[in-house]
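anyone seen this seq b4? input:
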Amino acid sequence: MSKKYKMSNLCKLNHFLGLQVKQSPEGIFINQSTYVLNLIKKYGFRNCSTLKTPMSVSEKLSKDESRKSVCEKTYRGMIGSLLYLTASKLDIMFATCLCARYQADPKDSHYKAVKRIFRYLKGTPNLGLWYPKGSGFDLIRYTDVDYAGCKLDRKSTSGGCQLLGGKLVSCSSKTQNSVATTTAEAEYVAAGGCCAQL
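predicted toks r here
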């Protein structure tokens, strides 16, 4: 391109829209550790303890009409920051998207779940995506579903990721359009979505 167009060489890409890019002969590593540390500082999680998972397995979120409401502006700001972070931290995608469903009227139980994600991030700021060099071009898709996981409408949530040569190229987490009456039906809907993506 430099033969055809006048351009300057800015060397290797290090930062791009909040993403940190580390290139080596073995591959490319992408993360958002600086952004994570800034979020932890901004929302006051510097002195809190860390957690090993972004979401509790035993606790299920619902509308919680009887619970106390929290500041919508703060809650939405935290969710928006976390959604931007899912570009390189897929480990928080499901928990973040689940909490994002309650932005219209967040309660203290939802805020507690969001705080748990931040406490998890504090302990894992350097996690990211690793793209090794020369690992082939096999296309693989993994998918899973939680049967009737939503307390509001009993819909299942499908999730999956697509790998090209062992490198992540896309991922998704979405509530299914219809209510499945059996686990097998929920799995077939997830498998159908998986095939459509491929």
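The helical segments are 33-42, 72-85, 93-100, 108-123, 183-197. Residues 12-133 form one domain. kinda curious what u guys think
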